[in-house]
Design brief:
CATH architecture of one domain: 2-Layer Sandwich
Number of helices: 3
CATH topology of one domain: 60s Ribosomal Protein L30, Chain: A
CATH superfamily of one domain: RutC-like
Distance between the termini: 19 Å
Order of helices and strands: HEEEEHEHEE
Oligomer: single chain
Shape: globular
Structural class: alpha/beta
């Protein structure tokens, strides 16, 4: 039987994918004490293709970027489920770090990252409210529009 968090995901029509294996010399997550650090997740959809590709402010809209950030958050949760076996073991979303593939004059990165933040709050309620950093970057793996990493307090 699915836990409370997985029921909330299902009610929103969200299916967690099988996490993508790391493409270099790192792991998808590391647990240290009651903290779970999840490596950056790009915006792959269930089909394995990028939800948004390219630069925000140069072909990718804020709405497309926000959808991509939401996809990154779904991929983070997939890693958390693999790490813990049960998303109900998340005590709190501590921090999200977002990287936005940005044109040099794109200033709306925080609006893009709301796609990830809004999902965490929708799923975890007040436990989903977190600290956050948003950084505009010149390029991301595969020309992904967005990548998000996370730190979770876990039971």
């Amino acid at each position: 039987m699915a836990g409370t968090i997985e029921q909330k995901l299902a009610a929103q029509g969200i299916v967690l994918p099988e996490p993508v294996a790391p493409v270099a010399n790192y792991v998808g997550f590391v647990r240290s004490g009651n903290l779970l650090f999840v490596s950056g997740q790009v915006c792959n959809g269930l089909d394995g293709k990028l939800i948004a590709k390219g630069k925000l402010g140069a072909g990718v809209t804020i709405e497309q970027g926000s959808a991509a950030a939401r996809g990154c958050a779904i991929n983070l949760l997939a890693q958390v489920r693999i790490a813990l076996g049960d998303l109900d073991k998340v005590v709190r979303v501590v921090r999200l770090g977002g990287f936005v593939n940005s044109a040099p004059d794109f200033l709306e990165g925080p609006k893009v990252l709301n796609g990830a933040s809004d999902l965490m709050v929708a799923v975890f309620g007040d436990k989903g409210r977190h600290a956050r950093t948003t950084i505009g970057v010149a390029v991301l793996p595969g020309d992904a529009a967005v990548e998000v990493e996370g730190i979770f307090e876990v039971a």
